[in-house]
Amino acid sequence: YKYSLRQGINDGFLAPYFVEEVNLDIDRTGYFPKEGERDIRTNKLLEQKLYIRKDFDQNIYIESRQKAVALDLLGYMEKNDQLDDKTILFCQNSTHAADMTKLIRNEAGRGHEYCKRIVSDDGQLGKIELEHFCDPKKPNPVIAVTARLMSTGIDVKTCKIVALDKNLKSMTEFKQIIGRGTRLSEKFGKFWF
């Protein structure tokens, strides 16, 4: 038996969604490093070649690109009066998630508790942060930055923003990630994501 997301929304069981696609210039054109340029994470000399979207935050870390993503997400949240709405940012891996957490904290200026990295590498501490994020009575963390841990099996009744800075290789994974925002909660004023 098959029951689609669209049917669930039409039947009133799942929250409808709004999609905003952001295409950074670097993602469209790629990145060719300067002679002698080093990777910001590994300090290794970058190969003189064109790096494309699938390389970013996997084979090469470009701080200006990461900062552009952080600023765009925070700008979207501010523009839509959602700076306090639960948000999940999906990243390529744990390292990328750590970078993005640091950038978002710095740019938001709302304290250490506002944005947390929640990945399986964090063990018991990660589980505690995940519980805090999922609890609608706890105001923080507002933004959870993850890689894979939160793509299935969690219920965040108040999650209104699901952001992707990740290359997805399957429609199944995409649907699982989107599912984090589909919960309806009249009690908490959550009718869409």
Describe the structure in your own words.
The protein is of the alpha/beta class. Helices cover 33% and strands 9% of the residues. The protein is built from six helices and four strands. It has helices at 5-10, 25-29, 63-79, 94-108, 123-134, 171-178; strands at residues 87-91, 115-117, 143-146, 161-165. Strands 2-3-1-4 form a four-stranded parallel beta sheet, sandwiched between helices. Strand 2 (115-117), helix 5 and strand 3 form a beta-alpha-beta unit. Helix 3 packs across helix 4. The protein is globular, with a radius of gyration of 17 Å.
Write the layout of secondary structure elements.
Layout: H1 5-10, H2 25-29, H3 63-79, E1 87-91, H4 94-108, E2 115-117, H5 123-134, E3 143-146, E4 161-165, H6 171-178
Parallel strand pairs: 1-3, 1-4, 2-3
Helix pairs in contact: 3-4
Explain briefly what this protein structure is.
The protein is α/β, with parallel strands linked by helices.
Separation of the first and last Cα atoms: 26 Å
Percentage beta strand: 5-15%
Radius of gyration: 17 Å
Helix content: 25-40%
**Spatial strand arrangement across the major sheet:** 2-3-1-4
Low-confidence runs: none
In total, how many beta strands?
Answer: 4
Key descriptive features of the protein:
single chain; 193 residues; alpha/beta; four-stranded parallel beta sheet; 6 helices; 33% helix; 9% strand
